[in-house]
Write a structure and sequence with these properties.
The chain has 144 residues and is α+β, with helices and mostly antiparallel strands. 27% of the residues lie in helices and 46% in strands. The N and C termini lie far apart (47 Å).
Length: 144
């Protein structure tokens, strides 16, 4: 069954500063707490991922970023950490030189409502923590 999760995060930093940490797909391990490393080649990214049970997994995805629209869309092509397939995520930034709203959603296929409930809890936590880290990084960039 197809399921979706939508989140919204207020980030007290300028949209351009926040976008600079998202746009290339590189170095997301600096703000996405489940990543321990990543490598970008064109529009493909390979990430080292800490799975929910603590083991490390390799995630491969393709992505597309629009600087004009401040959107980042990714499709996870390979992962083993979550009991889900056909995962597509969408990030959209709105804001100005003072604050940013991050709309972050993901759709996936899951086998059961129980699997989805577990994933939803984990994803909501991960996205919230990532938004906090993006805010901290964007604020540091302003001070530099």
């Amino acid at each position: 069954m197809k399921k979706g999760i939508q989140t919204r995060h207020q980030i007290n930093a300028p949209i351009e500063s926040v976008w600079s940490h998202i746009a290339t797909g590189a170095q997301w391990e600096n703000w996405l707490p489940i990543l321990s490393g990543s490598k970008v080649s064109g529009n493909t990214r390979t990430c080292n991922l800490f799975g929910p049970d603590g083991h490390e997994d390799v995630l491969q995805e393709s992505f597309l970023a629009s600087n004009l629209e401040k959107t980042f869309i990714y499709q996870i092509n390979q992962q083993q950490s979550f009991p889900a397939t056909d995962i597509v995520g969408y990030m959209k930034l709105e804001g100005d030189e003072k604050a940013t709203t991050l709309h972050w959603s993901v759709e996936m296929s899951v086998k059961s409502e129980e699997d989805f409930a577990n994933i939803q809890t984990q994803i909501s936590f991960i996205y919230t923590e990532a938004a906090k880290q993006l805010e901290a990084l964007a604020a540091d960039k302003l001070l530099a």
